[in-house]
Description:
It is a single chain. By secondary structure, the protein is an all-alpha fold. It contains 10 helices and no strands. The chain has helices at about 5-15, 20-40, 50-55, 55-75, 80-85, 90-125, 135-160, 165-180, 195-200, 215-235. Helix 7 packs across helix 8 (about 165-180). The protein is elongated.
Amino acid sequence: MAFQPALHAEWLKIRTLRSQVGGLAAVLLATVAFSAPVAAGTGGDDSDPLFSVFFGVTFGQIAAIAFGTTAVAAEFQGGALRVSLAAVPRRGLWFAAKLTAIALPVLAVGLATGFVTLAVGGAVLGDRADGFTTAEGVRAAVGCGIHLTLMALLAAGLTAVLRSGVAALGLLIPFLLIVSFVVGDLSGSLADFLPDRAGQVVLHGRWEGALGPWTGLAVTAVWTAAALTAGTWRVRRGDA
């Protein structure tokens, strides 16, 4: 089977499952729901009003991770992987189609999330939105979409390695909720190079760490590439 039919088949799996569609919707809803109150409470002397607008991405990325995890984990239940590989015997091709079917909708929803969050946050901030420029706002909105996509793919790769959605979420969610809020406050340390921490630099108007907006996303991309490389190896070598 060629790549396009394989991609179409994987997209059908995603769009026909309510849990997957709900997961995509949760990316937008969680981000906006947590961002708006933080932006509303931002004072005029806040050092980074841009990040207050995008604060909810910290929670929206959990929905993106759950989406990427469940999309891959479904293949390891009830012999679904054997059926998928019977239709697409080339394992590398099948996994590439799976990852593309995950990345494209997350990117689309992530970009929409970024611009909706920017619009809502800007409206809530009012005159306080003068603390960042239009270019910075657009950069953060685009970066939001890229960051969410990378995190979903990182989760997909880890799930393929562990062959379990529960195990992948059991590692990733505590990592994000504990490391980001506790260790992540140690700006300028190795914590800045953790995948979620690095990727969120693009959401800041002011940042004193070692990474810039795009180099931060590049660091997250390296983490994601490592997870996907390991996941591809596991899919090719593991039993169906």
